[in-house]
Amino acid sequence: MAGKPVLHYFDGRGRMEPVRWLLAAAGVEFEEKFLKTRDDLARLRNDGSLMFQQVPMVEIDGMKLVQTRAILNYIASKYNLYGKDMKERALIDMYSEGIADLDEIVLHQPYIPQEEKEANLAKIKDKARNRYFPAYEKVLKGHGQDYLVGNRLSRADVYLVELLYHVEELDPSVLANFPLLKALRTRVSNLPTVKKFLQPGSQRKPYEDEKCVESAMKIFS
Amino acid sequence: MAGKPLFHYEETRGRMESVRWLLAAVGVEYEEKFIHTNEDLEKLRSDGVLMFQQVPMVEVDGMKLVQTRAILNYFSSKYNLYGKDMKERALIDMYSEGLADLNEMFILYPFDPPGVKEANIALMKEKATHRYFPAFEKVLKSHGQDFLVGNKLSKADIHLVEMIYNMEELDANIIANFPLLQALKTRISDMPTIKKFLQPGSQRQPPVDEKGVLKARKIFKF
């Protein structure tokens, strides 16, 4: 086995952040090679390392994996965060995909033109408060267990907790009416691996500021 | 085990079509309850059977599954279309996800305003010809096998052939320069199950037309 996984992306959350969270939660050390310029991206493309000319790309176990879901599915399987059987996997997938739909709107917020930011933020708040968070609160209420699926930590819990933090950054009172989500967040945040990841100095990335957005736009334009 | 899976969706391709192709390939019968009106959709929502108030939804093995990928992954696992181990699954996922990106454009372009629609069609053709199809031709060339992963039919092959048919509706010659994709398309199309699915009278849906666009807008209010 080669060594630590290497994450290829720019120095920002974007589509790589859920991968960082999942590896961190699993206690897996990883390295990051940040794209800083268009040339960095061009080099990866010319090397033939990016199947569809896009990042994220993760070098892991001899593979150069692209496509966020392929990467997350592999890590989840490898580190037993994907349930115990097909049916648990189906629930985990259903829950993860719902979070991914919300994340798609959230991760774009820093990159949306200034005049459209308010509308996008309203959309995030509406969907989080009225569609997604109630659905997960209902799941937890339904079985009364500590985790979403199979009474055991899975990638769905990790991804959900990540989104709870990210949405709260944009809508500070969003969790007010979701006690079970708050409890899940506390529980997952207290796991030693996640606790470490939440501390300053970890590989967790901050909300993308203007400088970061500018840099990303330059690389990918 | 309850019975045949039951699909809840519009009578159109949309996000359900790749599920229809998948089950067709493995010869698994399923039933469909079509949503024809906004009232049909609202009834499903108020019944509490749609976790995120959205379709596709498939009733299978006692579950009411939503989210296309959750549905596809479950059927793929159940019917051995997901490789033999974690690493094969990773490749199958990578290939499937690339195709899903192209399919996303294909699903949405009929709803584009004029002008935008033509631009997106051109973009899709460009991406198919220069990004996606070359990548899959390269995979087939690299191992010389009959299927994309593990020398065995997987969901990736089915999604790829479905996309080839889709793109050929926009440009009949789109895989003219991809001999291995042509061979894969023929190989899959000749499978008795797929052959049957490709014939009139199957559960395969036709391309969406103006009427279909208007109907969708009415049902989903957009």
Structure, described:
The complex is a heterodimer of chains A (221) and B (222). Chain A is built from nine helices and four strands. With 221 residues, chain A is of the alpha+beta class. A four-stranded mixed sheet of chain A has the order 2-1-3-4. In chain A, a hairpin with a 2-residue loop joins strand 3 and strand 4 (63-66). The longest helix of chain A is centred in the middle third of the chain and has 30 residues, at 114-143. The radius of gyration of chain A is 17 Å and the shape is globular. Chain A starts with 5 loop residues before the first strand and ends with a helix. The model of chain A has no long low-confidence stretch (mean pLDDT 97). Chain B is α+β, with helices and mostly antiparallel strands. Chain B contains nine helices and four strands. A four-stranded mixed sheet of chain B has the order 2-1-3-4. In chain B, helix 1 (17-25) runs parallel beside helix 3. The longest helix of chain B has 28 residues, at 116-143. Chain B is globular, with a radius of gyration of 18 Å. In chain B, 38% of the residues are buried. The mean pLDDT of chain B is 97.
Entry summary:
Chain A: Residues 85-207 form the GST C-terminal domain. Chain A is an alpha+beta fold.
Annotation keywords:
heterodimer; A: alpha+beta; four-stranded mixed β-sheet; 9 helices; globular; B: 222 residues; alpha+beta; 56% helix
Order of helices and strands of chain A: EHEHEEHHHHHHH
CA radius of gyration of chain B: 18 Å
Please list the strands of the largest sheet of chain A in the order they lie side by side: 2-1-3-4
Major beta-sheet overview of chain B: 4 strands, mixed
If strands are numbered along the chain, what order do they take across the biggest sheet of chain B?
2-1-3-4
Q: Quick one: biggest sheet of chain A?
A: 4 strands, mixed
**Biggest interface, chains and residue tallies:** A-B, 28 and 29 residues
Class computed from helices, strands and strand pairing of chain B: alpha+beta
Low-confidence stretches of chain B: none
- Give unreliable regions of chain A as ranges: none
The proportion of residues in beta strands of chain B is 5-15%
Structural category of chain A is alpha+beta
